[in-house]
């Protein structure tokens, strides 16, 4: 969609593009209208139709004044049902840019099975892709946590307060120098999976691409631990398990100059509390290489119960390492 979207764009879509799609059989756009007032609420339709595969892609948008009313969900169900029954299609595909959790939630509510990622050739970004087949239930019962998470990850990453005046905030460019110094520390290299040697490019990739993308995808969160002056003194992350969405796993790295001050236990306690309350997690896992006593002490201070040793559980620069494992429950 053009940005900014102008009147001429709307006029072209309505008077030329939509009419041509219907005439040529390449698409089927619909207006979604309030039955009582006649006001436009949304647009929903098939943006492409592939008669070779008997497949189509659905697209939709909702006017700001009609959002959070179930308009898009009902519209996509109606269009999909019509596509199967009237056009004889075998599949309806949904796509959205990774991070568009509102669109993803609509698709899930309409019965689409979100099946993976699709590289977007036009701008290099990734997209989510899902499909609906004839006979799939179009009104599945979603766990309330799915709805809450979609709304959470659709917004900005929150800043969390931790004991001692610490803040957990997103990583920023100003953190890069400190991050490089911390990741070059021999103890960091020994006990974590940071690249060795650790270059500034590694820090830039982690802080400016990997960390924000984790939030955008809804896969977890990465935080900078900031002291009372706002300076970076460590990093901490919480990853949602792909196998069990009610299980998370934490990891953390303390700056050498900030160790022994209680910063990491305070940050870990704040992050776990947020994970239980905001993500509805039922269990949070901690793992560390066997022998990493400092990491184990941090976890146990927060209440993690030591559960044992996993053989060859962690990869570190091409080798498998045994891991200690612990768990925390609400």
From TrEMBL:
GO MF: protein N-terminal-serine acetyltransferase activity; protein-N-terminal-alanine acetyltransferase activity
Which residues does the UniProt record annotate as the domain N-acetyltransferase?
Answer: 1-139, 166-330
Q: Which GO terms describe its cellular component?
A: cytoplasm
Q: What is this protein called?
A: N-acetyltransferase domain-containing protein
Source species of the chain: Phytohabitans flavus
Q: What is the lineage of its organism?
A: Bacteria, Bacillati, Actinomycetota, Actinomycetes, Micromonosporales
């Amino acid at each position: 969609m053009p940005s900014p979207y102008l009147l001429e764009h709307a006029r072209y879509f309505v008077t030329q593009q939509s009419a041509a799609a219907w005439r040529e059989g390449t698409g089927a756009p619909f207006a979604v209208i309030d039955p009582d007032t006649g006001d436009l609420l949304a647009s929903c339709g098939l943006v492409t139709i592939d008669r070779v595969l008997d497949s189509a892609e659905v697209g939709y948008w909702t006017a700001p004044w009609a959002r959070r009313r179930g308009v898009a969900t009902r519209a996509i169900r109606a269009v999909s049902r019509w596509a199967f029954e009237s056009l004889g299609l075998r599949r309806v595909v949904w796509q959205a840019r990774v991070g568009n959790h509102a669109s993803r939630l609509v698709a899930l509510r309409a019965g689409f099975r979100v099946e993976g990622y699709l590289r977007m050739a036009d701008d290099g970004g990734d997209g989510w892709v899902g499909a609906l087949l004839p006979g799939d239930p179009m009104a599945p019962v979603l766990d309330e946590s799915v709805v809450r998470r979609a709304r959470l990850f659709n917004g900005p990453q929150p800043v969390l307060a931790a004991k001692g005046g610490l803040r957990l905030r997103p990583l920023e460019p100003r953190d890069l120098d400190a991050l490089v110094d911390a990741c070059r520390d021999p103890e960091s290299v020994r006990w974590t999976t940071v690249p060795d040697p650790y270059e500034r490019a590694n820090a830039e990739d982690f802080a400016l691409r990997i960390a924000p993308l984790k939030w955008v995808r809804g896969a977890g969160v990465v935080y900078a631990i900031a002291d009372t002056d706002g300076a970076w003194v460590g990093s901490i992350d919480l990853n949602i398990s792909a196998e069990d969405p009610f299980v998370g796993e934490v990891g953390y790295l303390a700056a050498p100059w900030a160790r022994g001050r209680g910063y990491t236990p305070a940050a870990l306690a704040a992050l776990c509390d947020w994970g239980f309350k905001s993500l509805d997690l039922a269990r949070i896992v901690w793992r560390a290489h066997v022998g990493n006593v400092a990491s184990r002490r941090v976890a146990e201070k927060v209440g993690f119960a030591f559960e044992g040793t996993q053989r060859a559980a962690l990869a570190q620069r091409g080798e498998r390492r045994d891991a200690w494992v612990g768990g925390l429950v609400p």
